[in-house]
Design goal:
474 residues, seven-stranded mixed beta sheet, 17 helices, 16 strands, binds nicotinamide-adenine-dinucleotide
Length: 474
């Protein structure tokens, strides 16, 4: 634990800065829509201005990252979120009507969204811009100030983001803190008014513990093993194409990537072959080196190698796509399909977070459902099927953070997004993000002409009769 202690000076600077930000917030606790829109405009302009350098930084951090992927996933998607927040925040800020139970009539109820104060945001490296700036946009739309800690594993991107934010914002509005796990530990111990953490389940637990000491509310966007089910009536050609993309995008380093596939036993061999074919089609010789993203570090590369070696040593059937024209020297890791693996293998125990894909056969839908239900609630679950009945059965009976029907990953960018159980708590994107970073204050409006006096002491027989009557009608 000693090496996870940031030096005292760093801790003091962060903590003093947070106090200063909280004082600035208290001086203007409910910034107008115009102030929030201006902050989001500045964020948008800053992102557009730094776009090329951010893409270059991401390419360097990953050793090789597809520029197209970085532009689409980290710049375009993030811009979309900033703009949606900017355009919708006036509507989201409005008081929301809520009904009161009839026995409280003629009172009225409203919910008033209010900024919480200063939000802390801890971000991972895999989509280093999107997963840092997306939550920031939501926090600003909700009228907060924010302090952000991006990942040390994508250091060039984190530094470029820090500079971008420092150029666009007063440090009392938004600040970026960079540093390693020692700084992250100290950061998560700060008394923020809300803390959003995106990262692994293991670190998420520590963050929740640290936040609990301050009673800081947390949103935990975590990971896990997201199952993908090839249904009994799935279109194998279509399914394999979509699953191939979901698994290999960003070199497999996507929190909602299919972690393993459940396939009807009779279809397993055909499906595996089609999946390998679909991956080869995505990465033909002339463009694979360009379009296929590398792993974030040598450590991550070695981890996947050892998972694969363990499966091989156990005699598991493996289809390796070693023939792809990619370059291990740029940490591009060849995809591999692992057929019918032993449940004890590391690849079936840990979140894979890379382009290895176990294919697990099942004999009945009930067995497949029991398999998923016996494991921690995943961040995502995908069902590929042409049967409405099969689709609805999976959607109604399985518990996961989010889900996709005949598609992987897209829900995480298009819809309110969050986990459940070990894959996280809370959600963001769109109004869910605004609400996450707001305190939704209930306000009870009592008209002066009301019946409340009927229950005030002194209690008479008449009042007792009214109270008894009330018990029948509530
Ligand atoms: P990680 O948990 O190792 O690190 C995430 C962040 O936490 C980094 O900024 C790091 O500096 C910080 N950190 C490290 N140790 C800490 C500590 N003890 N206390 C506080 N903060 C600490 O995760 P990662 O490797 O960056 O990302 C991969 C994981 O994140 C995967 O499990 C993946 O599924 C998950 N993920 C989830 C989502 C989501 O939206 N749910 C998105 C992306 C990644």
């Amino acid at each position: 634990m000693k090496d996870l202690e940031a030096d005292q000076a760093t801790v003091a600077v962060m903590s003093e800065h947070l106090s200063a930000m909280q004082s600035a917030h208290k001086a203007d606790p409910v910034p107008s829509a115009e102030v929030r829109i201006d902050r989001l405009r500045r964020l948008e302009r800053a992102l557009l201005g730094a776009k090329d350098e951010l893409i270059a930084a991401m390419q360097a951090d990953f050793c090789h990252r597809s520029a197209f992927e970085a532009d689409l996933a980290d710049i375009t998607m993030t811009l979309g979120e900033i703009r949606e927040n900017r355009k919708s925040l006036k509507r989201w800020m409005k008081p929301r009507r809520v009904g009161v139970p009839k026995h409280f009539l003629p009172a009225r109820g409203r919910v008033l969204p209010q900024p919480k104060g200063v939000a802390g945001i801890i971000a991972p490296w895999n989509y280093p811009v999107h997963l840092a700036i997306g939550p920031l946009a939501a926090a600003l739309a909700a009228g907060n100030r924010a302090m952000m800690k991006p990942s040390e594993l994508s250091p060039r991107t984190s530094d470029r983001m820090a500079r971008m934010i420092a150029e666009a914002f007063d440090p009392l509005e938004v600040t970026v803190v960079t540093g390693g796990p020692d700084v992250a530990v100290a950061f998560s111990a700060l008394p923020f008014d809300h803390l959003m953490f995106t990262g692994s389940t293991k670190v998420g637990r520590m963050v929740a513990e640290a936040a609990a000491r301050n009673l800081t509310p947390v949103t935990l966007e975590l990971g896990g093993k997201s199952p993908t089910i090839v249904g009994e009536s799935a279109d194998l050609a279509y399914s394999s194409q979509r699953i191939a993309l979901g698994k290999t995008a960003n070199g497999g380093q996507t929190c909602v990537a299919p972690d393993y596939v459940l396939v009807p036993r009779a279809l397993m061999a055909d499906f595996a072959e089609m999946l390998a074919g679909a991956m080869r089609k995505l990465y033909p010789a002339e463009s694979a080196g360009r379009d296929y993203t590398g792993l974030i570090s040598e450590r991550h590369f070695a981890r996947l190698q050892s998972m694969l070696a363990e499966a091989e040593d156990a005699g598991t059937q493996i289809i390796r796509l070693d023939d792809l024209a990619i370059d291990p020297a740029r940490r591009q890791f060849a995809p591999a399909l692992i057929l019918d693996p032993d449940p004890g293998l590391t690849v079936m125990q840990e979140e894979i977070f890379g382009p290895l894909l176990p294919i697990v056969p099942y004999d009945s839908r009930a067995e497949a459902m029991a398999y998923v239900a016996a494991r921690p609630a995943p961040l995502a679950l995908y069902i590929f099927t042409d049967s409405r009945e099969e689709r609805d059965a999976w959607m109604e009976k399985s518990l996961s953070g989010g889900a996709g029907v005949n598609e992987t990953c897209f829900h995480a960018a298009a819809l309110p997004f969050g986990g459940v159980g070990e894959s996280g708590m809370g959600a963001y994107r769109g109004q869910r993000g605004f609400d996450t970073f707001s305190h939704l204050k209930s306000v009870f409006y009592q008209p002066k002409r009301n019946g409340a006096f009927l229950f005030d002491p002194p209690i008479t027989d008449f009042k007792r009769r009214i109270a008894r009557m009330l018990q029948r009608i509530v």
